[in-house]
Amino acid sequence: MGRRRACCAAWDTREPDLNEILLYALGVLVFALAMVLSIGLHEAGHFFFAKRYGVRVTQFMIGFGPTLWSRKKGETEYGVKAVPLGGFVKMIGMLPPGTKEQERIAAGLGESVAARKARRALEKNGKAAGASEDAELVRGSSTGMFTSVISSTRAGEFELVEPEDKDRLFYRLPARKKAMVMLAGPMVNLLLAFGLFWGAFGTYGERAMEPTGSTVVALVSDCAIVGGTGRDVVCTPEDPASPAKQLGIEVGDRIVSYNGTAVQRWDDLTALVHTNKTGQATVVVQRGDQELTLGPASTAVRVKTEDGSGAEVGYLGVGPESVQVVHRLGPVAVLGKMAGYTTSTVSTISKLPERTWGVLQAITGQAERSPDSPMSVIGGSRVAGEIAATSNPGFDVASKSFLLAMVIASFNLFIGIFNLIPLMPLDGGHIGGALWEGIRNVVAKLRGLPRPRPVDVGKQLPVAMVLMMAFAGMSIILMLGDIIVPIKTGL
Q1: 42 and 87 in contact (C-beta within 8 Å)?
Q2: Would you please indicate which residues are annotated as catalytic (active-site) residues?
Q3: Cα–chain-centroid distance for residue 426?
Q4: How far is CA 308 from the centre of its chain?
Q5: Is the torsion defined by CA of 55, 60, 65, 69 positive or negative?
Q6: Are 423 and 460 in contact (CB under 8 A)?
Q7: What confidence score (pLDDT) does residue 464 get?
Q8: Which residue of 34, 277, 352, 491 has the lowest C-beta tally within 10 Å?
Q9: Which residues of the chain have pLDDT under 50?
Q10: Any idea what the Cα angle at residue 266 is, between residues 7 and 254, rounded to 5°?
Q11: For residue 320, cis peptide bond before it (omega within 30 degrees of 0)
């Protein structure tokens, strides 16, 4: 019945003050630390179950590229690398052997790395001997480009295997344990997302303006647009005055009756207005200590309903009194919301190449950047900074904390789901291999056949290389987009 007047916001051209700059930096820092922590906990999930199942873990690293800091504790080196866009846990024996020599090493019959290095140091032609032995590790494979990639990667894996590791190789784990080790990382991100969503919705809650139900008028529309919904429009001199304006209804009036029928609730008034077929209305209002009869006046203007049905109903042009209502959600309700977010995230991932292309078009000036386009961690940090620094009305510490938690939770949800894609080099590639291995083992057992050899996920490595290049390309485009044409948050 009422209408909210549309308006256009002007660009904010004022210079940010020192306080805003510091708050922006704080938001960026909080987001960056949250992402580093999320990566670390993701890798900790892999690490915990790998160690629990006896796999030797040689490295636990946050980031990629050159090592900035590391320390070895026990058999594992812990460290931080220069590019904080991920992390890894190096587990021994991720791929099954592909040559006789590798089978010997896996069985604990091969020469240890330490012994090999010591022997090579004593040999006169160390480099030649080393090259010969490295060649032995890949011998028996074809010389095609893809198979060479598989063979060289497998050879690198077995360079790290010691004789005492024969029972600590990842590929020897039962299928369910392999799946658990690789599933643990994404599950940590999903649990973090749930915890953040629950914390946000359980403490700050969902906030919405809801009508009180009373018949007190909080808004009077200036005009009515025939054929429109009567909402979110800008009046022009040619538009007819709204029926409420014609009647002289004012903000603060309490409507007592409509066409002689008493009204106690706003819904009662709405029903009477919508079904008014006479085109005339008389309204009684309580204004201060006075009860006034307004009208009769024409309310013949009819507008389309907002539910999409296309039906036309009577229109008065008043809006109800509303209050902010807070709904704090429990874990079950949050899970329901998270299910919706998950569906949206899966849709985003499925359209990632298409949407990344849209960002590239925005970078080159061929199109505007879509507000719902994907963004990189640079975009996430910018959004976090803008949330922390905004001075817009209604943004207090609680609301800013809520929005920051939602941004960080959304990134964790994306990381968790993205890593479950059943393709190498993502965790889902190993999980898919483990599940397929488990199915083969069950079928073999039912048929009374010997247990099959472990599934060789190394055969996915050529695909993994292509995907890694594609992911790297999309990441670069998104990062450039977040710098050149960042998403406008309106904060």
Answers
A1: yes
A2: 43
A3: 17
A4: 30
A5: negative
A6: yes
A7: 82
A8: 277
A9: 1-11, 126-143, 145-146, 229-232
A10: 85
A11: no
